[in-house]
Design brief:
With 182 residues, the protein is mostly beta strands. It is built from four helices and 14 strands. It has a domain at 48-118 and 158-182: Beta Barrel (OB fold (Dihydrolipoamide Acetyltransferase, E2P)). The protein has helices at residues 10-17, 82-85, 158-162, 165-173; strands at residues 20-21, 24-25, 28-35, 38-43, 47-51, 57-58, 67-72, 75-81, 98-104, 107-113, 115-122, 127-128, 142-148, 151-156. The chain has a six-stranded mixed β-sheet. Strands 5-9-10-8-7-6 form a six-stranded mixed β-sheet. The longest helix has 9 residues, at 165-173. It is globular, with a radius of gyration of 16 Å.
Length: 182
């Protein structure tokens, strides 16, 4: 692939985010975030940008309070409000709140978080499976748990999040762009 203005092609950027080198995967890179005091992280392979939302529009009915949309460069983007999705009480927009925008499963969407931290490298062997019954979140949405010091960090699975039916329906209801071929 060709570089334009120093941009790294997506497949190369995704390989670098996963920590792939000539010898194979060593560490994967994640963006750490805070949601209602809980540490979460999402793979850098998902990340396209982090924005400060001017506002979020949500609906009280289906698909549910965890789904919203916001405008990015004049286009509506569906978003998942991670606080309500993870079972925390609903909060209003607050200072420091960000939307982590990315792509997965052919879909562009955002993750609403209370704050964004640093990029961390996680060795694959240190990712532990989520214990059965530990959460009501669909299993495909969490890759596992990583112990960082004295904190447990939920590692989110961007493909599982992209496949959420409510995210798809909410994006369509708001006129968000449909995924390619869909």
């Amino acid at each position: 692939m060709r570089r334009i203005l120093g941009l790294v092609p997506r497949d190369t950027a995704a390989a670098r985010a996963r920590g792939e080198r000539e010898g194979g995967p060593t560490r994967e890179r994640f963006l750490s975030c805070e949601v209602a005091g809980q540490a979460v992280a999402i793979s850098l392979a998902f990340l396209r940008e982090v924005v400060v939302p001017d506002g979020l529009s949500a609906e009280s009915g289906p698909p549910g309070p965890e789904f919203a949309s916001f405008l990015s460069r004049g286009s509506p983007i569906p978003a998942l409000r991670l606080g309500p999705f993870l079972g925390y009480p609903e909060t209003m927009l607050q200072e420091g709140m960000r939307v982590v925008v990315g792509e997965a499963g052919g879909r562009r969407f955002g993750l609403v978080v209370d704050g964004v931290g640093e990029v961390v490298e996680v060795p694959p062997q240190s990712i532990l499976p989520l214990p059965d019954g530990a959460t009501q979140v669909p299993a495909g949405c969490i890759r596992g748990i990583w112990a960082r010091g004295d904190r447990a960090v939920l590692l989110l699975d961007e493909r599982g999040l992209a496949a959420l039916e409510g995210l798809e329906r909410f994006g369509e209801a708001r006129g968000a762009p449909a995924p390619p071929g869909g």
